[in-house]
Structures are given as C-alpha cells and as structure tokens.
Amino acid sequence: MQPKSGRRGGSSMLLLVLLATSCLLGSAKPSRGRPRTVRSVLLASDLAGRTEPEECKLSGHKDLHLLSPATACCYGKIVKNTSCCMDQQIAPGVTRKTLQRKGMHWNCTEENCWDTVQGPRGRDSFWLPEGATCSTPRTLYTHGGSWMYGSPDTDSYAQLGSRLAKVTGTVVMLTDYPLVPAGNYSSILQWAIDALQWLSLNGPFEGCDEEHGAKRVPLFVGGDSSGGGTTMSLVLTLAKRPQLLGQKLAGAFFFSPWTNLMCNTPEYYSNAFSKIQGSGKFQDDSKLTMYTGDILFQEVTPENADAFNGNAVDYLGGDFELQTDPIASPFFAQPADFAGSLPPLYFAVGASESILGDSVRVAQHAAQGGCDVILEVYHGMWHVFPMYSEGCGLGEPLWAGAYAINQTGLFVRHIHEQGRLPYKLKVEGPNGGPPESSILAKFWQPSVSKVPFFRYLYDPNVRHFSKVGELLPNRDATYSYKDIMKDLAKQSPWIVLPSLTGAAVTIFVMGFCLGGLTEFGGERAAPGARVAPRGLRARSTGAAALGV
Fold first, then answer.
1. I want to staple 317 with a disulfide (CB 3.0 to 4.6 A). Which of 88, 156, 184, 338 is the partner?
2. Beta-sheet strands, E only, within 438-541
3. Per-residue pLDDT tens digits for 97-141
4. How far, in Å, CA of 168 to CA of 139, rounded?
5. Helix or strand holding residue 281 (H, E)
6. What is the pTM of this model?
7. Which phi and psi (to 5°) does residue 404 adopt?
8. For 429-476, what is each residue's pLDDT tens digit?
9. What is the SS3 assignment for 165-221?
10. Which helix (H) or strand (E) element contains residue 377?
11. 3-state secondary structure of 237
C-alpha cells in the first residue's frame, strides 16, 4: 500500500506546482529581477485618466524626482486633453478696462471664422497695474491661437494679461484682431501697427493724449505662439519703416513665438511626441508610462509639420512665397534685417517644443545683427508654458511658468526704470582681443555683432535625476501565495478568467495523464519488486555453498 500513498503525495505536489505556475502566468505579473531604473529626459506617470481633483496628488509616486509634482501633473493632464489646464486666476491688484476703437471692428460668423466667440468683434482689453497713470509705460500684447482662435478674454489671455500688467508695471493692451480666414497676414499685421500707433498717443484714461502732449512714454510689445510671430513681424517692419511709429520701441518679449512658416526646423522630428510604455509598475499599481517630446502637438512628425504648414499657408492667404519672406516668416530674416533701431529682445521657450528652433535661430540672428537678446530655454516645458503657471490644478505653481513671467517683468522693468537690460554679455577673442580675431570672424561684424545671453533652465525643485518613481521591488525571494492572489485580484476579469480556466483544464489533463502513467508504472514494477529479494537470497545461498 505504500507505493499508492507515495503516488498520491507526488501527484499532489505536482498539482500544487502546476497551480502556482499557472496563477503566476495568468496574473500577467511584471517580470521580476532587478528593480528597473529608468533614465530619460522627460518622464511622467499616467495620471490623467481620472477627473477628480486627486489625480495630481501623486500619492503613489512620492519618489517622482525627475519631474516636479506640478510638471508631472501638467504632463498627465495635457497628454489626455491638450486644451486643458491653463491658468484660471486673475492677478490681484490690477484692473480691467475695455475700449472699442473707432473703425476697428469685425464680425465673426460661421462663414468667415472658426472661433467659438461669434458675432461683433474687435474690442480691446486693457489691464492696468495698481497706481497706473498717463505716464505709465505701455505694452501691446498680441495673443496666439494659430491666428484662427482666441481673443483678449478667452483661452486664459485675460489671466496672462493681468499677470503681465502686475509684473511689468505697464498698462497691457490686448487686441481682438480679425482671425483667419476673416483676416490674414497683411490685415493682422496692419491691425497691430494701428493698435501700436494708437497706444503711443493714447493712454488708459481719457485726456492722456492731451496731458503728456509731445512726451512719449516707453512702449513695449509682446506675444506668444502665432501672436509672437506677428509681434516679430511688427518689430522688423518698424525697423524698416521707423516713421510708422515716430519713436523707438523700448523692448519686445516673446513666449514660444512661431516664426518659421515653412515649418521645417529639426525639432519637428527630434522633439516629436512619444509615449513609452514600460512592463513594470509603480507601487500604487499604476502603469509605468512615460511621455517625451511635444505634449501639445502629438501627431507624428510629417502630420504635425503638415498641419503647421497648412495653417501657415492659410494665414498667408495662400501666398507660398511669403513662407520664406523675412518679415512674414522672421525665421528667414538675416542678421542685416535686425540692424538699425531694433529694441532689446527677450525669448522664453520650452526645450520640448516642436518649434524650439523658431526662437533659437531668430535670437541668434538678431544678436548677430546687433540686438541685445536674452534667450531662456526651459527644460521639459511645452508650448507657451507661462500660461500654465498655476500648476494645472495641483495647488502649487509650475515653477518654469511663474519664473518666465517674472523674468519678463524683470526685463521690462529694468529697461523702463534703469534704461538697460538686467544683464549683458561681453564677448572677447583670444587673449582678450576682439571677437573678430577668433573663430567668430566668419559671421562677426566688428562693433556691431553680439551673442544672445543664453540660459538653459532646470526646475530647482527637482533635486534628484536618478529615479523616475518607486517601482515594484524585486520580490524573487519572498513572492508568496498571498502576493500571487494580490496581483491576480488587480487584473482585468478578461485576463483572469481565461487564465484560471486554462490553468484548471491544464491541471486536470496533466493530472489525469500523470496519474494514469503512475498507476501503469506501479503495476509493472510491483511483481519485480516482490521477486527480486528472493533471487538475491538464492544468489547469496549459492555463493555461500561455494565457500565464497
């Protein structure tokens, strides 16, 4: 009877091994081994699948060191909804006024306008800092939106205008220019010229034109995205035709300006959006998902560039030749186009943008032409990131967005209060000689050419660059039945049920077959087991008889 008991014990042990193996396979548990250490330039957990406020609290990602919590929050939300998360709060201590300038109106209808704000348009908005007077410096700001969308009061431009008024100490005027297809490159640029001319002669209050008479207050211009492109076209136009304004601009600032209407800078490829799905998981069982590149424009490179290109051609009224015109498409302006009476320029652009090169190339050529230029590239940031300075709903600010706005304030205030940039670069050749005595001589014009004051900025809140998040640990030595059940419970029923069913069928068939084989082998082996001792005794007896 002992052989039968051994067969049952061996079969039971085998069935337990098969059950554990099947459960491990069915649970789709991540491969075990060394804990994964993922290193990438831009990483974020997949946080945006929920809509409740807790989605950005990162409770399971306490060690998310490579991105700050606010940046990670914005990544997760924007990837899921590229229209979300812009600033919502109006800056304190500023006031708003509106004005309809004579003759500056247009109608947005379904036939000539794709924006959501339909009906009569063209009313300007003004944001006044505390204590503003007729002598307060003034800024003309041109909003973005691909020249097809937006207004001074939508898409968070009211919030941005209020912040700019507060940090710069200037009266900020936002115009409601005619959007494509109601408007085009020529009419939008002319609208900006008319607005700047009006602003130079009129202040935020009635009677300002009479009060300061011939005295002109400092004038600044700014813009973002497509509005930044129009602002640069305005700056270059005034350099060619200074009589249009009658005074030199004090300064110009740009957030992610769109200046290349051929849409073929290398970053359309190198900064293309990608989603990396790892096989591991974070401690809270969320997927190990990472995003890199341009999170706002997520199409593959050809589609993304083609979409930009088609938008640009519509803006240019179908005139393909203007795509390389140095005024309409400032990316193609040469250093000589920036010579003359151009003001100091400030650029803030994200390092992950498809149109990063639109800022870098223009900044370089402007400095080479003799402009004072500050160029700041912000690590990990997306298109027009200063408009997300509140942190996408996390409750803490997005450092890069808030810092870029404050830097704009420093740039503007330093110019109108001190009469110069906050900082400049001095370029020397070998042994302290002139730059033209060095390798710079190829493009350096003596006593004219400069280089941008350039900074590549990291978020100081990110102190560690080795870990992405707290991944599931190596559990080879301690992976127990309880661990198996926990992992199994977290899987989808569509994974668990087929896995368990398959495991059960496999166990039954293998158990049946092994049981049969064991039974058959036992019956064949039993007679031999009984005979062998008798033969052994016979051989032993014979050996004794021979005297061995």
1. 184
2. 453-457
3. 999 999 999 999 999 999 999 999 999 999 999 999 999 999 999
4. 9
5. strand 274-281
6. 0.74
7. -65, -40
8. 666 566 655 555 556 666 667 888 899 999 987 765 434 444 444 344
9. HHHHCCEEEECCCCCCECCCHHHHHHHHHHHHHHHHHCCCCCCHHHHHCCCCCCEEE
10. strand 373-378
11. helix
